[in-house]
């Protein structure tokens, strides 16, 4: 699609159908991008660096909210111990639904911002997964969310995709398939293709 000389009568879109690049190397090689806002000229055609934009969102809802106290353990193997009072929420998505178990966060990860693996978006903010991801559910820390419990419970939880941020008008928080893939040492193909068929699809 990016090379006019390669245009024939069929296209194998591959992962571009999700608005994703096969790899950062491919993106840089074909677009020669060094500045996210730059444009390059390919023959007589202008190609913007935003040629591909992620189009897939993976969302769920909160099924339970709970207050936990210091010393409480969360998840299989009690890998997460609560160090200060915390508000947690349960979402009905686990490794069976495509949430990689490698995104689990024991205490050793959660205390090192930047080492934290699994996160989701709630009310426009990143909320870390706490403890091990289970087969059909995960637990997230929503302590930082200041909305009422009713508002939180009725909010979408974004696993992959964008969500309007409450911090600034017009701003969005985003978690991409590329980000998740990098965190667990795999490729974006695996992240988007492992979402099972029974998950409801909405096409817009």
UniProtKB/TrEMBL annotation:
<protein>
    <recommendedName>
        <fullName>Alanine racemase C-terminal domain-containing protein</fullName>
    </recommendedName>
</protein>
<dbReference type="InterPro" id="IPR009006">
    <property type="entry name" value="Ala_racemase/Decarboxylase_C"/>
</dbReference>
<dbReference type="GO" id="GO:0008784">
    <property type="term" value="F:alanine racemase activity"/>
</dbReference>
<feature type="domain" description="Alanine racemase C-terminal">
    <location>
        <begin position="55"/>
        <end position="204"/>
    </location>
</feature>
<dbReference type="InterPro" id="IPR000821">
    <property type="entry name" value="Ala_racemase"/>
</dbReference>
<dbReference type="InterPro" id="IPR029066">
    <property type="entry name" value="PLP-binding_barrel"/>
</dbReference>
<dbReference type="Pfam" id="PF00842">
    <property type="entry name" value="Ala_racemase_C"/>
</dbReference>
<dbReference type="InterPro" id="IPR011079">
    <property type="entry name" value="Ala_racemase_C"/>
</dbReference>
<dbReference type="GO" id="GO:0005829">
    <property type="term" value="C:cytosol"/>
</dbReference>
<dbReference type="GO" id="GO:0030170">
    <property type="term" value="F:pyridoxal phosphate binding"/>
</dbReference>
<dbReference type="GO" id="GO:0030632">
    <property type="term" value="P:D-alanine biosynthetic process"/>
</dbReference>
<keyword id="KW-0663">Pyridoxal phosphate</keyword>
<keyword id="KW-0413">Isomerase</keyword>
């Amino acid at each position: 699609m990016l090379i006019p000389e390669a245009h024939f009568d069929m296209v194998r879109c591959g992962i571009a159908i999700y608005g994703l690049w096969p790899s950062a190397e491919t993106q840089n090689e074909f677009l020669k991008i060094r500045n996210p806002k730059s444009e390059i000229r390919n023959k007589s055609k202008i190609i913007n660096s935003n040629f591909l934009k992620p189009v897939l969102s993976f969302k769920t809802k909160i099924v339970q909210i709970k207050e936990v106290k210091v010393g409480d353990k969360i998840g299989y193997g009690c890998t997460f111990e609560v160090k200060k009072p915390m508000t947690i929420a349960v979402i009905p998505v686990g490794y069976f639904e495509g949430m990689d178990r490698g995104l689990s966060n024991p205490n050793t990860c959660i205390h090192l911002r930047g080492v934290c693996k699994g996160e989701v978006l709630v009310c426009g903010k990143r909320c870390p997964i706490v403890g091990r991801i289970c087969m059909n559910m995960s637990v997230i820390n929503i302590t930082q969310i200041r909305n009422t419990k009713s508002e939180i419970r009725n909010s979408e939880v974004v696993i992959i995709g964008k969500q309007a941020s409450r911090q600034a008008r017009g701003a969005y928080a985003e978690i991409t398939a590329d980000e998740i893939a990098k965190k667990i040492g795999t490729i974006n193909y695996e992240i988007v293709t492992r979402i099972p068929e029974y998950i409801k699809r909405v096409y817009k």
